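Hi support team,

I submitted a single chain yesterday and got back a structure, but I'm not sure I'm reading the token output correctly. Could someone confirm the output below corresponds to the sequence I sent? I've pasted both exactly as they appear in my results page.

Thanks,
R.
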Amino acid sequence: MTVTDRSPAPTPPLPQPSSWQRIVAAARNLWRQLTSMRTALVLLFLLAVAAIPGALLPQRNLNAGKVDEYIAARPVLGPLLDRLELFDVFASFWFTAIYALLMISLIGCLLPRLREHLRALRSAPVAVPRNLSRLPHHHQGFLETPVDATGAQVQTMLRGWRTLTRTDDDGNQEISAEKGYLREAGNLVFHFSLVGLLVAVATGRLLGYEGAVIVIADGGPGFCNTSPAVYDSFRAGTATDGTGLDPFCLRVEDFSADYLDNGQAEMFTSNISYQSGEDLGTDRWQQHRLRVNEPLRLGNERVYLTGHGYAPRFTVTFPDGQSRTETLQFAPQDATTFLSSGAMRFDPPGGTYPDPDERRRNQIALEGLFAPTAAFDGTLLTSVFPDMRDPAVAIDIYKGDTGLDTGIPQSIFTLNSEMINQGRLVKQARVNLRPGESTTLADGTSVRFDGAEEFAYLQVSHDPAQNWVLVFAITMMGGLLASLVIKRRRIWVRLRPDGTGTAVELGGLARTDQAGWGSEFTTICQRLLPDIPLPAQKDR
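Hi R., thanks for writing in. Yes, this is the structure output for that exact sequence:
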């Protein structure tokens, strides 16, 4: 007897994907996750969260001094935050990574949606549903006109809608109409404008620059935008080295500040003269009134008035009768009263001390406070109002090597403490002076306080993409408004011959909103069937 093996044949093993196929599959899944709308929303939220430290912590590109003070005051936390680039948030690698991933995610989300929208524009309206009575909007009635005439009347009323007329198997005429495609178009315009705005801002950061400079008013030398060296602080974009600046020259003719009775600044105004283009190198100067948030625009350059302060003027007369006069800005220490601090260094004129070492030992340095409206508590100076009504200074006078010949960079607001500690700068006197008053040192050197001038703090910003930022911001708002106001809706009409007339049945549906989409459906029904009362519409 023969025994037959009826067990199923073994299933051959499935082919295993190769390493290359696994890599491609992983990359495809990663791309799908990255280009999902959920990921784009998460990245947008992360970008907003990542920008918070930029508002809470001092930023190095805006005020490097504040960053140094913050780190010095927090010896443990400060260096850690610095390593995390939280003092350069908008130039940090992690902020740039979120920014780039957001743009890639948005583009990956929007391109398929754009294809779907274009496909929907080319496709025919959806056929009439079999049971119109189940739709949120429904109405029916009878007209004593033939089907063809009723269809022509419906087409007239639906002018502006995308319509398509069909005839079903029973000989009924069916009209499909759609409207509101601009809703999705507005949505796409909003999101593509958001991408464009991000690209424009990034382009401005790459190709732009910002420089801040203090300019003395009332006859000060002004400055020319020819090199980063003319600025007190300068930040160039990643793709900009600071060369090839658009040239222009500017000087501050005067400065005025309006204050409330409590000392709060109300408005800053400065009349300036400038040269640009063909005026450079000539005696032609253009006039402009500069105010806060009202910049001077020169092509892609904008000149902002961001602040002001005071620059005391001192005259030092050396024992041989030669003198030097200098006007230099002091840094405001109190934003309410503008009590300011600063330092000055005076090198003896040529011939006063023929020997270089002797000349270096007889340099004069000043360091102290300036009060625009002075008040004294004994010999202690303070300021009680920010306007210059009764100016005075309290200064320490030093003699010795100020470090002018060392080539080592020094702060213009403080003296080098190492020079003082080493005895190379020796204090000679501490005095309080009002304009016109002077003091004489033991060797006959005289130091006179001549008064003070106001200075304007100007910021020059170059952004080649600023016009595109405005364009994309406007289109974003337009697209958002269209996506919120316009509603995608459909109407179907079935016309059935009934004796000498036509039985009319209408149905309406809003695709992306609640069932109610205004009075348009009701208006169409009343125009087509004026004698038939409308039933209450269903809630969706």
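A quick pointer for reading it: DSSP finds twelve helices and 23 strands in the chain. Let us know if anything else looks off.

Best,
Support desk
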